[in-house]
């Protein structure tokens, strides 16, 4: 009797694998590459794993696959014109699939993703920039609509903007020709 095949799939395994690789990197265990980053005199070195970098970055994949065997088991890669903080964020992203950066750094993260040919980070930055742009456009639209409604209110004679009407109740005696002053003139 033949049994049907079943799929054994773990939803947590990819996350657990990333977490374990990140811990190994942070502790410096099994790291086989050091990436030296320098930008405007600021330099830092980052130990990492070739397999993780090659799997997430076509740039690193090309570098490691074109290495000569005489380089030994441990490699050094030098990156100029990449800010230290940006590369640290890049590493955190490739090892954890997430990173928190300030809004004004998103463009720089997109640039490093393109430079290092990291499709996942590039797509993530692009989607975030798209959301940020849509948010700004929505704010501009709301502002424009509120400006138009205020202008329409000012253009209608006798119309008082709602905010002003709530603050200042109308003075009937001064505004109406038939107020108390006009009636007293009629009696005389």
UniProtKB/TrEMBL annotation:
All residue ranges annotated as the BTB domain in the record: 31-103
Organism of derivation: Prunella fulvescens (Brown accentor)
Keywords: DNA-binding, Metal-binding, Nucleus, Repeat, Transcription, Transcription regulation, Zinc, Zinc-finger
Localization: Nucleus
Stated name of the protein: GZF1 protein
PROSITE patterns, sorted: BTB
Source domain of life: Eukaryota
GO cellular component, one term: nucleus
Pfam families: BTB
A molecular function GO annotation: zinc ion binding
Major location (coarse): nucleus
Gene3D superfamilies, per the entry: Potassium Channel Kv1.1, Chain A
Keyword Zinc: yes
Chain residue ranges for the region called Disordered: 145-188
């Amino acid at each position: 009797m033949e049994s049907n095949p079943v799929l054994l799939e773990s939803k947590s395994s990819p996350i657990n694998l990333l977490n374990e690789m990140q811990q190994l990197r942070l502790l410096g265990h099994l790291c086989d590459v050091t990436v030296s980053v320098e930008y405007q005199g600021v330099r830092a070195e980052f130990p990492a794993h070739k397999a993780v970098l090659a799997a997430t970055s076509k740039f690193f994949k090309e570098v490691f696959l074109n290495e000569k065997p005489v380089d030994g088991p441990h490699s050094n890669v030098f990156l100029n014109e990449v800010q230290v903080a940006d590369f640290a964020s890049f590493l955190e992203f490739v090892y954890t699939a997430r990173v928190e950066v300030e809004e004004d750094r998103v463009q720089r993260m997109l640039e490093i993703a393109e430079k290092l040919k990291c499709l996942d980070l590039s797509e993530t930055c692009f989607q975030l920039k798209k959301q940020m742009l849509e948010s700004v456009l929505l704010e501009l639209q709301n502002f424009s609509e509120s400006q138009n409604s205020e202008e329409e209110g000012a253009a209608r004679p006798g119309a008082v903007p709602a905010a002003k009407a709530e603050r200042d109740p109308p003075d009937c005696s001064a505004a109406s020709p038939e107020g108390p002053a006009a009636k007293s003139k009629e009696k005389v």
